[in-house]
Amino acid sequence: MHKQARVQIAASSENLYATCEDFYKIIDEDLNRIYQLSLLLTGDRQKAENCCVASIEACADKNRVFREWARAWTIRVVVENAIRELTPRPTRSNSSSLSSLLHHPA
Fold first, then answer.
1. For residue 95, with 0-12 CB atoms within 10 Å meaning exposed, 13-18 middle and 19 or more buried, which class applies?
2. d(C-alpha 96, C-alpha 94), whole Å
3. How many domains does the chain have?
4. Are 27 and 34 in contact (CB under 8 A)?
5. How far apart are CA 52 and CA 8, in angstroms?
6. Listed residue (3, 6, 13) closest to 64, CA to CA
7. Domain range spanning residue 74?
8. Distance CA 12, CA 18 (A)
9. C-alpha 55 chain-centroid distance
10. Which residues, given as ranges, of the chain have pLDDT below 50?
11. Residue 1 domain-assigned?
12. CATH code at position 42
């Protein structure tokens, strides 16, 4: 009896989590809104497209997200990727010039 109860609990808890298909459905339904949010947050068409692509890729990865929260999680991913698009990444030339300024003050 205990084994059967454990199997039922395990099966029902697996149904609580969103699948890749759930995310694909959300993206298909909300693609225009996802792009509009990306464009609003980044202010640039190319960055918005990069944000959308990165968000779709992140949603395609297997994440343990409750099915009920999948749509909100998708928006969260878009916001995170927009922030990444806007955050300047240090380059070697910037880091070397910063290093030279720190070691050789004017």
1. exposed
2. 6
3. 1
4. yes
5. 38
6. 13
7. 17-86
8. 13
9. 4
10. 7, 9-10
11. no
12. 1.10.1740
Considering the domain boundaries, does residue 9 fall inside one? no
Are 42 and 48 in contact, with CB atoms under 8 Å apart? yes
Q: How many residues does the chain have?
A: 106
Structure tokens at 84: 């990444």
pTM given for the model? 0.68
**pLDDT computed for residue 77 by the predictor:** 94
Give dist(CA 35, CA 44) in Å, integer.
11
- Give a yes or no: residue 96 inside a domain: no
Q: What is the 3-state secondary structure (H, E, C) of the chain?
A: CHHHHHHHHHHHHHCCECCHHHHHHHHHHHHHHHHHHHHHHHCCHHHHHHHHHHHHHHHHCCCCCEHHHHHHHHHHHHHHHHHHHHCCCCCHHHHHHHHHHHHCCC
Q: Which residue has the tokens 């070397």?
A: 96
Q: Is residue 75 part of a domain?
A: yes
Model pLDDT, residue 35: 96
